[in-house]
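User: Quick sanity check before I run a bigger batch. Here is a single chain. Can you write out its predicted 3D structure?
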Amino acid sequence: MTLPTIGPPADHEINALATLMRETIERLDIYSERAKHAEFAKYTPDAIRALAAEDPHAVIVARDDEGLTGFCLSRFDDGTVWLSWFGTAARARGRGIGTALLAALAGTLPARRAHKIWCDSRTDNLKSKSVLERAGYQRIATLANHWYGQDYYLWEVYP
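Assistant: Done. Predicted structure follows.
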């Protein structure tokens, strides 16, 4: 198996990206069904294409010789970047892909004229918490009963 390459998705990869995101979100037992369905509706192939067209740094994927291995979606937000989602295909976990995607996202800040990245994660999402901490993110707040009535941590990093 070759090492993954990281960069923007090719147009022919967008459907596979939407499928990978759906599969990743679907497996999250820490998300309510209502939250999952809202995210499915947000990240359709057309919505991902529109996000990438609006900001060429907003959608990053990792791929190897078998296809997509990971994804990172973000949006520019008034001098900061909001990390919306990142994830790794089940077949590729444990290979540092999440950390590599976060590093690639940090590399987009100068081109986007942004000074920091921020995001949230479910308080019980231990995998995400671990990757974010390894990438230097600091937990800055706990948001109780937040999105969809669930508890979240708010994170930031100044790469």
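The mean pLDDT is 94.

User: Great, the batch can go ahead then.
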